[in-house]
Each structure stands twice: as C-alpha cells, then as structure tokens.
Amino acid sequence: MELRLLQAAILKSLEEKLCSNDFAKFGLEYSLRGNQAIFAVDRYYVIAVKKENGRFYLRAKTVGMKLESDWFLVLDEDRLVQRITKLLINYMMKDRDVRN
After folding, report:
1. d(Cα 29, Cα 27) in Å, to the nearest integer?
2. Contact 37, 48 (CB under 8 A)
3. Where are the alpha helices (DSSP H) in 1-100?
4. Cβ contacts of 2 within 8 Å, gap of 6 or more
5. What is the mean pLDDT of each run of 10 residues along the chain (100 residues)?
6. Closest Cα to residue 5, out of 65, 81, 89, 73?
7. Pairing between strand 67-68 and 55-62?
8. Chain centroid to CA 68: how far?
9. pLDDT value at position 68?
10. C-alpha to C-alpha distance for 34 and 20, rounded to whole angstroms
C-alpha cells in the first residue's frame, strides 16, 4: 500500500467514526511529506507514519511537552489504520472536552 492510499484509508475511517469529513472543526491537519504521512491535531499532537523498505513505521509526538516515541514497526496495515484512527479520535475528543 502506498502512503497516499494509507492516508486516504485513515481519513475515510475517521469520517465514518466522526460522521463528518470536516476535519478542520476537530483541529486536524494532514499532509504527505517525502516518505511520511503526517496527522496533526491543533499542532500539539502529531502522528507520523513512514514507509521504508516496504514496511510502515508509526511515531507519536506531543509538541511542547518533549514527549516523543521511537519509530514502531507496524506489520498489519489494517491495524495501523485502526490504531491511528483511535489515537486521533481520543485526542480530538479530549481536546474538545477541555475547550468546552
């Protein structure tokens, strides 16, 4: 699977779970940069996925708090989509609860 297809699968999964494709209202930004797909929530929580040698790696980072994980190898692409969807939704909902 290409990064662009992986990103599309994650966005589709998010859309199904959130019943919306208006990700801006949740503070989600996403992009492709070189060999990485980047998902950022309000520029504070960032998930990066990179593809090297045909394998996907995942890393999460909380900006400003110096919390950064190492790159983790993910063997199952479907689980990768589910995991990222869950991480993003949990963070976006937590962030909305704090703001309200």
Report:
1. 7
2. yes
3. 3-18, 77-99
4. 51
5. 92 90 85 92 85 90 71 89 91 63
6. 81
7. antiparallel
8. 14
9. 64
10. 28
Question: What does the pLDDT read at residue 97?
Answer: 53
Size (the chain), residues:
100
Cβ neighbors of 80 (< 8 A, separation 6 or more) are: 6, 49, 56, 58, 74
Structure tokens, 31:
């992009």
Distances 11 to 28, 43, 98 between C-alpha atoms, Å: 10, 18, 24
23 alpha carbon, distance to own chain's centre: 12
Identify the bridge partners of residue 40 per DSSP, sorted by sequence position: 29, 46
pLDDT of 100 reads 44
Query: Is the Cα torsion angle 60, 62, 23, 39 positive or negative in sign?
Result: negative
Q: Quick one: pLDDT at residue 39? A: 93
Which tokens belong to 78? 């479907």
**pLDDT score, position 22:** 84
